[in-house]
Amino acid sequence: MFVGHYSASLAAKAAEPRAPLWSYFIASQLLDVGWSVFVALGIEKVRVDPQLPGSVFDLYYMPWTHSLLAAIGWSIIGGLVFRRLLRLPNRAAVFIGLVVFSHWILDFIVHRPDLLLFPGGPKVGLGLWNYPVLEETVELGLLTTAAVWWAASLVRGEKTELRAIGLVVLMIAMQAFVIARPPSGGPLMIGSMVLAAYIVIAVAAWWVERARS
C-alpha cells in the first residue's frame, strides 16, 4: 500500500485540524520512512521479485519498523515528538500517534505474511496484495473517501482551494507511476526512491496549507 496510507492523514486532518497536514502525512508513512532508511543502511532487508503479484517487494526482514510491537513504539514516539516540536494540544498529538499506527493496520490488510508481531515472533498479513485489482480498488477507495471528507471540512471552513485537488491528483499520479514502473535496484536505491517519494508528498502538503494561509 502506498497512497492508501494517506487516507488516515486526510481523515485525521478533517477530524482534528490543529495539527498541520504535512505532519499527518509524515505520520502516516513514518514506519516506511524508518524502513527506507534502515533498508538503505542494511539494517532491514528487502528483495525485488517481479513475479510477486501486487507488490514486487519481498519484505522478509523488517522487525524494527513493521512488527506490531515496533509500530506501537513508533506511534507513541511520533505523537510525543510532534507534540513537542509543534507544541500541539494533547488531542492533536493523540491523532498523530493514531495515524502512525494506522500504517500497520493497513499494511496488515494488504501485506503477505511478512509483518512480525514482535521481533523474532510469528508473521502475519491478510495478503490482499495477491489480488492486485481488488487491492488497488480498496486503496484508491480509501483515499477518495478520506479526500471527500477532508474537502467537506474545507468547504465548511470556507477554504476551498484548487491546490487541495492538485495534491490528491499528485498522489494518484504517483500511485499510477508505481504500478506502471515498479521499483527496482538494490537496497540503497530502493530506500532512497521510497524516501524521496514521501518527501515530495509531504512538501506538497506543506505547500497546500502555506498557500492557503
Task: Please write out the topology.
Layout: H1 6-15, H2 21-28, H3 30-41, E1 45-48, E2 57-61, H4 63-66, H5 68-86, H6 90-110, E3 115-116, E4 123-124, H7 132-156, H8 162-180, H9 187-212
Antiparallel strand pairs: 1-2, 3-4
Helix pairs in contact: 1-2, 1-7, 2-6, 2-9, 3-9, 5-6, 8-9
Please, could you describe this protein's structure?
By secondary structure, this protein is mainly alpha-helical. The protein has helices at 6-15, 21-28, 30-41, 63-66, 68-86, 90-110, 132-156, 162-180, 187-212, and strands at 45-48, 57-61, 115-116, 123-124. It has one domain (3-207). The strands form two sheets. It has a two-stranded antiparallel sheet. The longest helix is centred in the C-terminal third of the chain and has 26 residues, at 187-212. The mean pLDDT is 92.
Give a quick set of tags describing it.
213 residues, mainly alpha, two-stranded antiparallel sheet, two-stranded antiparallel ribbon
- Tally of contiguous helical segments: 9
User: How would a textbook summarize the main sheet?
Assistant: 2 strands, antiparallel
Class from secondary-structure proportions: mainly alpha
- Beta-strand portion reads 5-15%
pLDDT below 50 for ≥5 consecutive residues: which ranges?
none
How many angstroms does the end-to-end distance come to? 31 Å
- The percent of residues in helical segments reads 55-70%
Q: Kindly report the average pLDDT value.
A: 92
Number of beta strands: 4
What topology, given as strand order, has the largest sheet?
Answer: 1-2
The domain count comes to 1
What's the overall geometry?
A: globular
Radius of gyration, CA atoms, in whole angstroms: 17 Å
Order of helices and strands: HHHEEHHHEEHHH
